[in-house]
Design brief:
heterodimer, A: about 475 residues, alpha/beta, three-stranded parallel sheet, globular, B: about 190 residues, mainly alpha, Potassium Channel Kv1.1, Chain A, 2 domains, three-stranded mixed sheet, 3 strands, about 50% helix, ubl conjugation pathway (chain B), Skp1_comp_POZ (chain B)
């Protein structure tokens, strides 16, 4: 508590009421107070019943439930509370149903009843015009996972749907006219079409986040939405053991933001992404040190080329070194399609193989700002990629090099030289140092200033604040 | 800012924690949509009259964020020669509300608006309650959600009932026996 509040508390306890301290919170009308309480977990809302007589029964009128499975001492008490709560004002509108397993350990012996209970509760709230349904399970070695009832597919009031570790059934028809946010975390589907139809059945969908699971029964994920603004796709973490290729196809003309983090999907098919502004790209098209890029694999080359063409309206991009590597290998067979609209790029390297970057930079003819980040990777040898002849960088104005290589000053100097020698209009190059090298800053700066600069007005700065 | 190294994260727990970290640390970079406003080709000026007699002239694009005002504009009988009367809003509060509406009508990224909102609600409790009541009367859903969330956060930050009472000056009118009884009834929530 800050000073003012402490003064008030002391004054209250001594029985001395300061004139203008009115209890405006309790004075709010019921509906507004319930609106406030809707943002607090149910456990805390129930606790508020002891504040004063005005608050004693208010918790029953809050139009929503936000419970964690660990809130109750045992499962049966949890069930009876939820049933009791849903029995209050059973005709009235309920805005929110949120269950979350916040402790990531199996705390209860889940019986068959849990699946039936959740189904029953969801059906009850769907009839009461619920807007937000969040069921976040955390199943560990459980035979029966919760299956969401298919009535969820035709809920006219639903605005946001967030699910984790549950099963979504095959829809007969999908009509979700108000859903704006869908968040699916390791959810299992009946098949490819089920997920595709869910997405297409939401005519005002704005944000879609999918965190994949290797057993989710989806091989080809199609995202077709005329309204979608933001799409986040995090691939499965286990290796794809199936023979079939994994595909993600995106057709979203209004999409502005896309996050792709997936090393198992074989191809990303992009169409109609003319509004794309920002892209976070950490994909490898299922190539790795085990599954090397084969120059004779025309299909893979097609996939990569079409992908780059498809994202070409992007203005701001984050790219991982694994993706750069895939593009670098591709570039040795074919010319990389240009990203004419890209003006800002952040590249993250988990090793010192920054030399893949120049090839990529050549396909960004309008790049203005570049940030490079490195994380220490012990034992990694400097790259086997040929340095080659590097082109000029005629539009680059700002370069930031963050957390550079420790114990490899030569590589660091080489990197800085590359930018200083090739950038014709560079305005500022900033080198960020790790805190333990802070003392060396003036020495390093002096050395960098001796490197010949193509752009005479360029400023070189050595900084110790680690923000990119 | 970090990228997941898939081969390293085999355990379910690690994946989930990392995934959450990644997602929370990145900014959603899409621009604000003003699609809910009924924009006319030429922006008209609307005059609002507060309960304490002051007049405010604002663009209709800003005024229309209030559903109440939107309905008043559509209803010919509502306006007087002095503009639209707002019986429940004082001039102090209305000027703050207009500040909010102006910012949310401008083109700004979601991230920028969130930062602005966080600063906007750093005011004393009395003002927040005034804003809740005004946002409710004027039917401005964004402002109502923001101010209610602010109060909810203050409640949630309190350790126990005593602290909530102290923060909001709530007088405890229970006898110790009554309070004890209540705590027993909902025992699970106090553990």
């Amino acid at each position: 508590m800050d000073e003012d509040e402490e003064k008030r508390v002391r004054a209250k306890r001594s029985g001395d009421r300061i004139g203008d301290d009115v209890d405006r919170l309790s004075d709010l009308p019921d509906n507004l107070l319930c609106h406030v309480l809707l943002n607090i977990p149910t456990k805390d809302v129930v606790k508020s019943s002891v504040l004063s007589k005005r608050w004693r029964d208010l918790w029953r009128d809050v139009p929503g439930l936000d419970l964690g499975f660990g809130d109750f001492p045992d499962y049966n008490e949890f069930v009876s509370f939820v049933d009791r709560f849903l029995g209050f004002n059973c005709e009235s509108r309920l805005q929110k149903l949120k269950f979350e397993d916040r402790c990531l350990e199996l705390k209860y012996e889940w019986d068959e009843p849990h699946v039936a209970n959740v189904t029953r509760w969801i059906n009850v709230v769907l009839k009461r015009k619920v807007q937000h349904v969040h069921v976040l399970e955390s199943t560990w070695d459980v035979d029966k996972e919760v299956e969401i009832p298919s009535t969820v597919y035709t809920c006219e009031s639903l605005v946001s749907l967030k699910l984790r570790d549950v099963i979504l059934p095959d829809p007969e028809s999908v009509s979700l006219p108000c859903v704006k946010v869908i968040h699916l975390d390791e959810v299992k589907f009946a098949n490819d079409q089920a997920l595709e139809r869910l997405i297409s059945g939401c005519s005002v969908l704005e944000s879609l986040t999918i965190n994949r699971n290797v057993h989710d029964n989806v091989k080809v994920l199609r995202v077709c939405s005329k309204s979608l603004l933001s799409f986040t796709h995090v691939g499965q973490c286990e290796e794809n053991i199936n023979d079939e290729d994994l595909v993600v196809a995106v057709d979203a003309p209004r999409l502005e933001y896309m996050w792709l983090s997936d090393h198992e999907t074989d191809s990303f098919i992009i169409s109609n992404l003319g509004s794309l502004v920002k892209l976070h790209m950490d994909v490898t098209f299922n190539l790795s040190s085990q599954k090397r890029f084969d120059p004779n694999d025309l299909q893979k080359r097609n996939v990569i080329r079409k992908f780059l063409v498809g994202i070409s309206s992007v203005k701001d991009m984050d790219i991982a070194s694994e993706t750069l590597e895939a593009i670098y290998n591709y570039s040795r067979c074919e010319r990389v399609p240009l990203l004419r609209n890209l003006s800002s790029l952040r590249a993250y390297f988990s090793d010192y193989r920054w030399e893949m970057l120049p090839v990529f930079l050549e396909s960004c003819p309008n790049l203005k700002s570049l940030s490079l980040g490195f994380s220490k990777s012990p034992g990694e040898q400097p790259s086997s990629i040929l340095p080659g002849h590097h082109c000029f960088l005629p539009t680059l104005e700002y370069v930031k090099i963050g957390k550079p290589m420790i114990d490899d000053e030569e590589a660091e100097t080489k990197l800085v030289s590359y930018f200083l020698e090739k950038s014709t209009v560079l305005k500022k190059l900033t080198l960020f140092l790790n805190p333990d090298r802070k003392k060396e800053a003036p020495v390093i700066l002096k050395k960098l200033l001796t490197i010949p600069r193509l752009s005479t007005s360029c400023q070189v700065v050595v900084s110790d604040t680690l923000t990119l | 800012f970090h990228f997941l190294s898939r081969s390293q994260s085999n355990s379910l727990t690690t994946t989930r924690v990392l995934y959450k970290e990644i997602h929370n640390s990145t900014a959603h970079y899409f621009f604000r949509r003003i699609s809910s406003l009924k924009l006319t080709k030429m922006s008209k000026k609307i005059v609002l009259k507060t309960s304490d007699g002051e007049s405010f002239e604002i663009d209709d694009s800003i005024a229309l964020q209030s559903e109440t005002i939107a309905h008043l504009i559509g209803d010919d009988s509502a306006s007087t020669s002095n503009g639209f009367p707002l019986a429940n809003v004082t001039s102090n509060v209305l000027s703050t509300v207009i500040e909010y509406c102006k910012k949310h009508a401008s083109v700004a990224s979601e991230e920028e608006l969130k930062k602005w909102d966080a600063e906007f609600v750093k005011v004393d409790d009395s003002t927040i309650f005034d804003l809740i009541l005004a946002a409710n009367y004027l039917n401005i859903s964004g402002l109502l959600d923001l101010t209610c969330q602010t109060v909810a956060d203050k409640i949630a930050a309190c350790k126990d009932a005593d602290e909530i009472r102290a923060t909001f000056d709530i007088e405890n009118d229970f006898t110790p026996e009554e309070e004890e009884e209540l705590r027993r009834e909902n025992q699970w929530s106090f553990q």
